[in-house]
Amino acid sequence: MKLGTKLVIFSIFTILIPMLIIGFYAVFLLYRNTELAQWEFLENVENKIKIEVTEMENEYLLLAKELAGYDYVRDKVYVYNKYWNQISENLINYDLTSLKDFIKEKALLNNIETIAIYRKDNSDFRYVFSVGSEEYLPDVLYKGNNLLDYSKIVYMRYYDGIYLSVAYPIFSDGRLVGLVFLLKALSTTYFSEYTSAYNIDIALISKGVVLYNSNMDVNMAIKELIANEEKDPRINFDSNTKSYVAAVFTYHLSESAVGELVFYSERTSLLAQDGFVVQKFLLLVLFCVMIPVVTFFIKEIRLIKAINSLVDATDTVSRGDYNSPVEIKSSDEIGVLSRNFNAMVAVLKRNKNALESQNMELAIKNSYIDAVFQSLQINIVIVDKQNKIQVVSKNTSSRLEMTEEQIGEKIFDVAPFCDKADVIEKTLNQIWEHRKFFRLYTLQFGNIDYEIDFYPVIEESNELSAVVIILNNITERMGMERALIRSDRLASVGQLAAGLAHEINNPMSIILNHVQLLKSGDLSKEEEKRFMERVETEIKRVSKLINSLLKFSREDISKLEHISPEEIIKEVVNLFAPKAVPYSVDGVDDSNKIVSERTIQYIILYKSKKIQILFTSARNNLKIFCSRDGFKQIIFNIIKNSLESCGDIDGIIRITFRADQGGIRINIADNGNGISELDLENVFEPFFSRQKAGTGLGLSLCKSMMSKYGGTIHIDSIDNKGTTVSLFFPFRENMYG
């Protein structure tokens, strides 16, 4: 469809559509301001109030039943029912505080105006306390035999409005002990919300008395309407030179709550003009719409001609001809557009010449970049969407024995990647799926350790086009880390050996004593057998201590695997506490907190200090991905630091597990001396230590190894109050899980 045809259709719609919309709107205004519409609106408000009151009745009944059913409320009211006259006033006031707070919280949550509690006293129910407004709350409910039905809504009339109430019985062991009493006022506050929300006036009348009226100026007129026995629900009335439309509704909620509810509003003045305003409005809109339409038709031919001229010039430029400018015939926007088009063509002509020159320079720069790329001291491989090799740096050829002839083949089908095909293919599939960077911390080709980074290449169109694989030779760095760990471990073994000397000395003393008794020859056969068994037990104990020390000092082979952290932690704790004492089920520690049945207590003597280690196992068999010996070194360093930090005989170390947002978190907390805010910033720095015998390498190595495993270590501490070390190990079944 040509532009001219489109413009004609558009011109027609610019007349018809606005006219139709305005016409419908004018009809709506005319209808909206009729008496019938106003009556319907008032009746609609009455229906909303009726529905809300019904919902309110149900809510109050349910809440009263709920409050009466709470064990806490039932037990309290039972005591008041039975012992009210035997308890002192001070004690009653003190005991009521918690119950009042409980009831007040329920009142606030459910937007209840008044809640009162009554206790049964013989045949009466006597007031105990209330929350909310205390007005109209009797001291005694249902006095004598004049009992009303429980669990029903009852309406009562007072001087300021109608009140909704419900009393629900409280039973204890099948015996009635009290009542829950709820009260809601349908008075000024309640009706004023509707008056404000719907911009109408409301009057509440009961037995000829006006209990509430939002417009007191029409009180007399309202009373006259109600006095008319043959009153119509839909009526008009005048008061103070103003005319009103009113809807009258009769209600009969109880014997005392009987009357009329009147909704009224001032009659609109639009009807008095008999629609003349609407007619003028339509004529004015029509005139305003026609002005731009006529102007548009006048300009239409000129606009189309100018656009066609620009279209022809664009075709000429697209064919490479930059020497045919557009003729400028006016100084308006079309003329400006033509002038700018000619300027644009001139710029394109200059840019074309400059681009040809820059392409030549770019080719030279590309050769420089390629030379720099090939000389990098890291190994780089780039693969496409099919995981086929596209680029191989020359350094890669010398380090990984790859050649440029392998370009075009899948990376996990060529050496040396074919030896680790499963790992490489799984990693690349995850990169293509999740479009995120990922690092393989340690992968070995031959006898060389590599740290491999995978970088997704995302173009401006947000399309993932390639993956850059960077292989960094970390063999030398791994050797240095192992040497540091070995050094720190030997230092730890020395400190641990001194501590174990005391443990070994005890069984050796027992063995020596029993051997001397055996040599005396004064023992019976049964005593000799029992002494020999005891000697054997103590020898096994010494052997276990020595084996634990030797096992801890072995070299870390840095094999990453899924291990159970609980087993390793128990093994390390046993180095410090060879005698473990099972903690009692549902036992209570020094903080008076419940300890689960999965908690084991270790009691040890460390440098003449009695310290507890509370180890809580996980409910699931959680596993982490790291080096077994490396994790053992991390736990040993942290527990050793906690032991050094703990105070006198009340020192406590707590070890806990939990699954935490994609990984496993291990917390080791103590109540020791803590770390100052200034020292906390430096604890991970190598050789930083506040201990006289410390090397300052423990936490530094812990952080390095956690980074190697893809995890994190975080320390929270308050000086002189304690320290918490948090270790986080991510799940490795799904690298992005």
Overview of the structural elements:
The chain is α+β, with helices and mostly antiparallel strands and 737 residues long. The longest helix is centred in the C-terminal third of the chain and has 46 residues, at 475-520. The protein folds into seven domains: 1-31 and 277-320; 42-189, Beta-Lactamase, CATH 3.30.450; 190-273, no CATH class; 322-375; 377-471, 2-Layer Sandwich (Beta-Lactamase), CATH 3.30.450; 474-555, Signal transduction histidine kinase, dimerisation/phosphotransfer (DHp) domain (Helix Hairpins, Orthogonal Bundle); 559-737, 2-Layer Sandwich (Heat Shock Protein 90). The strands form five sheets. It has a seven-stranded mixed beta sheet with strand order 18-19-20-22-23-25-24, covered by helices on one side. It has 16 helices and 25 strands. The radius of gyration is 45 Å and the shape is flat.
Strand order of the largest sheet: 18-19-20-22-23-25-24
Question: Could you tell me the strand content as a percent range?
Answer: 15-25%
The number of helical runs is: 16
CATH superfamily of the largest domain, by name, is: Histidine kinase-like ATPase, C-terminal domain
Shape: flat
CATH fold-level label of the largest domain: Heat Shock Protein 90
- What kind of oligomer do you see? single chain
Alpha carbon gap, first and last residue: 54 Å
Look at the helices and sheets and give the structural class.
alpha+beta
Count of the domains: 7
Question: From the 3D coordinates, which CATH architecture of the largest domain would you assign?
Answer: 2-Layer Sandwich
- What is the CA-based Rg, rounded? 45 Å
What integer is the average pLDDT?
A: 77
Kindly state the percentage of residues in helix. Answer: 40-55%
| β-strand number | 25
Unreliable spans:
269-275, 579-595
| CATH classification, class level of the largest domain | Alpha Beta
Biggest β-sheet description: 7 strands, mixed
